[in-house]
Design brief:
Layout lengths: L4 H26 L5 H13 L6 H7 L2 H33 L3 H23 L1 H18 L7 H4 L6 E7 L11 H4 L7 E6 L5 E3 L12 E7 H9 L4 H11 L14
Helix pairs in contact: 1-2, 1-4, 1-5, 1-6, 2-4
Length: 258
């Protein structure tokens, strides 16, 4: 009973190569401002040719650097990695089919090797070292916009950047940013996508918010979530006062009378 060593080694090499390529692309996409989860998903989709249509996909298409990264991944996937893996797996299956015992042992060996590679790539020291090397390489050999937006915006400790679609009955509708005083609540408006299509970055206090607008805001996740469901009227004003005073203003819970 003999195990087809060469096909197994080839498959594992191709799998390792695809992992490294995906990791490089993931880090490159995060350096353009994408979240790590979205970047990983887009990198894997592009390499495998899955072609999922998501909001992140639109942000990739509309961003020249991200588009270039994904196009490179798609080219690599169509020209080599996926095709080679399929061909080697077919050779492996043909070689092992003549001997049931060797086929089972070979499959177990391949599965064990794959799990070993996955475990290795997930080790924290390996992840840190690989990420450091990739970042240095991208900084030295590419002209990508090497800025870690997550670090710049301090997106941790409960803080996040979010989009809020303004409804007709929302508390923010019909008011200027100066009237809303969202800064007093710890919520910063980074931009406004007006319903007519015009985007206003770094809006000032004179910017009026209307139904159908989309606010791009930065703040604590719970505070942003509460703001998203805050309705007009005295209850909304009470929630605003509580948020300004630093107290918990949970949606659906009537605030205490001041």
């Amino acid at each position: 009973m003999s195990i087809p060593i060469a096909p197994i080694i080839t498959v594992l090499i191709v799998i390792l190569l695809s992992m490294v390529v995906t990791r490089v692309a993931t880090i490159a996409l995060t350096l353009t401002g994408m979240s790590r989860q979205a970047a990983r998903f887009q990198a894997r989709s592009a390499l495998t040719g899955a072609g999922f249509t998501t909001t992140e996909s639109e942000s990739v298409v509309n961003h020249p650097v991200r588009r270039r990264i994904v196009m490179t991944l798609m080219l690599m996937g169509s020209a080599g990695i996926v095709t080679v893996l399929a061909s080697v797996m077919l050779t492996f299956a043909t070689t092992a089919s003549s001997d049931t015992g060797s086929s089972t042992l070979a499959l177990l060996t391949l599965a064990g090797g794959t799990l070993g590679l996955l475990s290795l790539m997930k080790l924290r020291p390996v992840d840190r070292a690989l990420s450091r090397v990739i970042r240095l390489g991208l900084r030295r050999f590419t002209d990508l916009d090497i800025r870690d937006y997550a670090s710049l915006l301090e997106i941790h400790g409960g803080y996040a950047v979010a989009e809020l679609l303004v409804g007709a009955n929302d508390w923010v509708a019909g008011h200027t940013l100066a009237e809303l005083r969202l800064n007093d609540e710890g919520v910063i408006v980074l931009g406004v996508q007006h319903d007519g299509g015009e985007y206003e970055g770094a809006p000032d206090g004179e910017t009026r918010i209307a139904a159908g607008d989309v606010l791009i805001v930065y703040g604590r996740g719970d505070q942003v979530a509460e703001l998203d469901v805050r309705e007009q009227g005295s209850l909304g004003e009470a929630h605003h006062r509580q948020a300004t005073e630093g107290r918990d203003a949970r949606p659906g819970v009537p605030p205490e009378e001041p």
